[in-house]
Amino acid sequence: MLLAVFSDIHGNRQAFEACLKVARAKGAERFVLLGDFVGYGADPEWVVDTAMDLVAHGAVAVRGNHDEAVNTTTESMNSEAQIAIEWTRRRLDAAQRRFLSELPMLVEDSDRLFVHSEASSPKRWHYVRSTADAAKSLIATPAHVTFCGHIHRPALYSMSVTAKMTSFVPKTDVPVQLLRGRQWLAVLGSVGQPRDGDPSASFGLFDTVSCQITYCRVPYDIASAANKIRENGLPPWLADRLSQGR
After folding, report:
1. What is the pLDDT of residue 75?
2. What angle do CA 231, 73, 89 make, to 5 degrees?
3. Beta strands in the chain (DSSP E)
4. Alpha-carbon distance 157 to 118, whole Å?
5. Contact criterion met (CB below 8 Å) for 26 and 2
6. pTM of this prediction?
């Protein structure tokens, strides 16, 4: 089965629509959503409704820290992110908020694990910035492949049976074989707000039979997404950064 894995959509309808279209064209059979459906972007209702429909048709979805923040005041965020979350709360209806609040923190599926941040302590929202961070996540699960997001930058880590770590940044559209005998942590980039210097939307395709993962980049209508942020009175930097990929 070919899985399409999306993370950190952040209310960006234009980016999510573009990624869904490409994933379907490439033959994706099931969708995995790694959280942060809302925050920053100006279309949280559409994104959450789309996620709800995908889940109703068999998609896997987990909760991100911005999703958590919609229903609690205990999540600590920078001022711009907080403004966006408070605006988002006013836009979502009860059913949409309930969907976000009821999302699981992680999902185990065969020899795969799906989580927003990392597996050792999902609710603490740690970023995977290094091999040490990745090792902590991998040690916490027996899964062959763990998929996460949160940091908005694509990366691949692996750990051998002797705990030797490797890491690299995957190239776009180049399949990587996730060898048996090693554990893997696939860090997806962001659909709605990439921060690796490439403004195009990011998602991954994973073949469950061949154990190959391919990182994909998709151009989308950044100007429209940015203009809608400005039109809704959200902090201008949230719009400006889309074209910068940071």
Report:
1. 66
2. 30
3. 2-6, 30-33, 60-61, 106-109, 112-115, 145-148, 155-159, 165-168, 176-177, 183-187, 201-207, 212-218
4. 12
5. yes
6. 0.95
